[in-house]
C-alpha cells in the first residue's frame, strides 16, 4: 500500500498546476489529520466509504494468535444489540464521509483563501496545516455524533445509525446527480489517468480473494456489491466526459488543470460561482 500511495502521489504531482502546494496539503492531512483519525468534499468521503465496505468486513474476521492471546486485524467491540453490517458498526461508514468530507471542505476553503491572497507564500504554507487542525476541531464537537447516529436523539448502536447512513448515501447521490452532473475539466484519458481506475479495483479484488481463501463466505456478497458500485461510478465519470468552467484550482485555465472531481468541487464551493 505504501508503494501504491507513493506511486499515485507521484502521478498526481505530474498533473497538478501547483505540485508543491498539493504535496504540502497531502503532508498536513497525513500528519495532523489522518494520524489522529486513522486515515479528502463529500466525493472523497464516498470513495473511502465504498472501499471500506470491502475491507472492514474482512479485517474483523482475520484473527491471529499472539503470545497466547487472540487479536483481530481490526477489532470492533459491539454490544449484543448494536446495529452492524457484517460485524462492523454502521456508524463506521458514514464516519468516512464525515472525516474525509470535512478534511476536503477545509482544504477547499484554504485554497480559496490562498487564491484571494494573491498566492502569497505565507498563506500557501499555513493553510494546509490550519485546514487539517480545523477539521480535527470540528470532528471532536458533539455535532459529529449527530451526523453519525443522530445523537442525542439516538444512542450508540441504535437505528439512528441506519438513518444517517441512508442520509449520507442520499446526499452523496444527490450531489453527484444534480450538482456535479459529470462536470469535469476534460474527459479522462485511460492512458494518462489510469491509476484512478486501476488502483481501486485491485484493492477490492484483494479483499475479495482473502475473504474467499480465508473461508469467510458471508463477506464476498457485500464486497462484490460495493466493489461493483465503486468501479461503476468511476466508469460513469469516465463515460460522462467533461464540461467547461471547472479547474483543479479555481481561477486557473481549464486546460491547465487535471480532469478531477476535486476541481469541480472547488469551483462549486468557490465564492465566484
Could you explain the architecture of this structure?
The radius of gyration is 19 Å and the shape is globular. It has 273 residues and is mainly α. A two-stranded antiparallel ribbon has the order 1-2. The chain has helices spanning 2-15, 19-37, 42-59, 92-116, 121-139, 142-149, 160-180, 194-198, 200-213, 220-240, 261-269, and strands spanning 63-66, 69-72, 84-85, 88-89. The protein contains eleven helices and four strands. 63% of the residues lie in helices and 4% in strands.
The total strand number stands at 4
Number of helices: 11
List SSEs in N-to-C order: HHHEEEEHHHHHHHH
Mean pLDDT level:
75
Relevant terms:
273 residues; two-stranded antiparallel sheet; 11 helices; 63% helix; 4% strand; disordered C terminus
Write the layout of secondary structure elements.
Elements: H1 2-15, H2 19-37, H3 42-59, E1 63-66, E2 69-72, E3 84-85, E4 88-89, H4 92-116, H5 121-139, H6 142-149, H7 160-180, H8 194-198, H9 200-213, H10 220-240, H11 261-269
Antiparallel strand pairs: 1-2, 3-4
Helix pairs in contact: 1-2, 2-5, 3-4, 3-9, 3-10, 4-5, 9-10
Compose a concise summary of this entry:
With 273 residues, the protein is mainly alpha-helical.
